[in-house]
């Protein structure tokens, strides 16, 4: 094993799977309906709300800007937490039904890293229940155990773009950032990983395609498969290392990114 890359840290929502538009968004709407709220987050509105990291924080932001009269609820924080818990139940149910597949190249890369004895970790602000449900529904019941560290939910005070979750995961791994690579999908995620000192590969999705990814080593359409290669969208490392065509992310490519 080359010491240049000893671990890969994955974000979850939008990175491992396209969970936002067709997972979290309808789960929020189902929770609103269950509580008798006449709120509905359509695709465009939810895209704007994604600028706010964290589900409970997103609900509060929506209330502040769209239904400020609802802020008068007693014990507002507890009410938002209850609403978010209902949303999580709906979301986990969707995952357990197999409705949300992994993005191209994700399963292949995870198995490839395990075969190479590279540590793998999760660094996300979504709840642990969401992470476990996604992994089990797509990679198998034992797959959460494949990860050396799962950093999820409210275990740190600052949500992305704060680097707190990455600092926590690196501390648990007992590895310096220079020996790791992060995989993200959004500008907020990239800002967090860069602030933690991590070289970062970004795989965009429909919501994040036009965000600012300055500082990323490589910006790709997805992680790629041998039968369906990725497309390079941005990143100086792509040009510098001859990765300006198409391919798939593996250890050889990650070592090129490390120079």
What would your notes on this structure say?
42% of the residues lie in helices and 12% in strands. It has 259 residues and is α/β, with parallel strands linked by helices. The protein folds into two domains: 7-18 and 101-257, HAD superfamily/HAD-like (Rossmann fold), CATH 3.40.50.1000; 20-96, Orthogonal Bundle (DNA polymerase, domain 1), CATH 1.10.150.240. The protein has an eight-stranded mixed β-sheet with strand order 3-2-1-4-5-6-7-8. Helix 1 crosses helix 4 (76-96), helix 3 (55-66) packs across helix 4 (76-96) and helix 4 runs parallel beside helix 6. The radius of gyration is 18 Å and the shape is globular. It starts with 6 loop residues before the first strand and ends with a helix.
- The helix/strand order is EHHHHHEHEHEHEEEHEH
Uncertain segments are none
Estimate the mean pLDDT confidence.
93
Radius of gyration: 18 Å
Overall outline = globular
Specify the number of helices: 10
Classification by helices and strands = alpha/beta
What is the topology?
Elements (H helix, E strand, L loop, with lengths): L6 E4 L8 H16 L8 H7 L5 H12 L9 H21 L9 H10 L3 E5 L4 H12 L9 E3 L12 H10 L6 E5 L2 H9 L3 E5 L14 E3 L9 E5 L1 H5 L5 E2 L3 H7 L2
Parallel strand pairs: 1-2, 1-4, 2-3, 4-5, 5-6
Antiparallel strand pairs: 6-7, 7-8
Organism: Nitrosospira multiformis (strain ATCC 25196 / NCIMB 11849 / C 71)
GO molecular function, one term: hydrolase activity
InterPro entries: CbbY-like (IPR044999), HAD-like_sf (IPR036412), HAD-SF_hydro_IA (IPR006439), HAD_sf (IPR023214), PGP-like_dom2 (IPR023198)
């Amino acid at each position: 094993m080359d010491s240049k890359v000893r671990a890969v840290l994955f974000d979850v929502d939008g990175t491992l799977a396209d969970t936002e538009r067709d997972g979290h968004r309808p789960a929020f709407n189902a929770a609103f309906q269950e509580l008798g709220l006449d709120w509905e987050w359509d695709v465009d509105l939810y895209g704007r709300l994604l600028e706010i990291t964290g589900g409970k924080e997103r609900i509060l932001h929506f209330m502040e800007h769209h239904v400020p009269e609802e802020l008068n609820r007693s014990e507002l924080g507890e009410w938002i937490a209850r609403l978010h818990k209902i949303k999580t139940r709906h979301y986990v149910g969707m995952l357990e039904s197999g409705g949300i597949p992994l993005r191209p190249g994700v399963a292949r890369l995870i198995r490839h890293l395990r075969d190479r004895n590279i540590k793998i970790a999760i660094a996300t602000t979504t709840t642990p229940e969401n992470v476990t449900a996604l992994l089990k529904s797509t990679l198998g019941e034992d797959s959460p155990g494949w990860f050396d560290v799962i950093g999820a939910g409210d275990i740190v005070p600052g949500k992305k773009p704060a680097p707190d979750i990455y600092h926590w995961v690196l501390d648990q791994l007992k590895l310096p950032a220079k020996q790791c690579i992060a995989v993200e999908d959004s500008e907020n995620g990239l800002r967090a990983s860069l602030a933690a000192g991590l070289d970062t590969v970004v795989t965009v999705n429909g919501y994040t395609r036009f965000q600012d990814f300055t500082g990323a080593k490589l910006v790709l359409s997805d992680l790629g498969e041998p039968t369906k290669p990725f497309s390079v969208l941005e990143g100086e490392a792509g040009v510098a290392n001859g990765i300006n065509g198409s391919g798939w992310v593996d250890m050889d490519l990650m070592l090129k990114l490390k120079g």
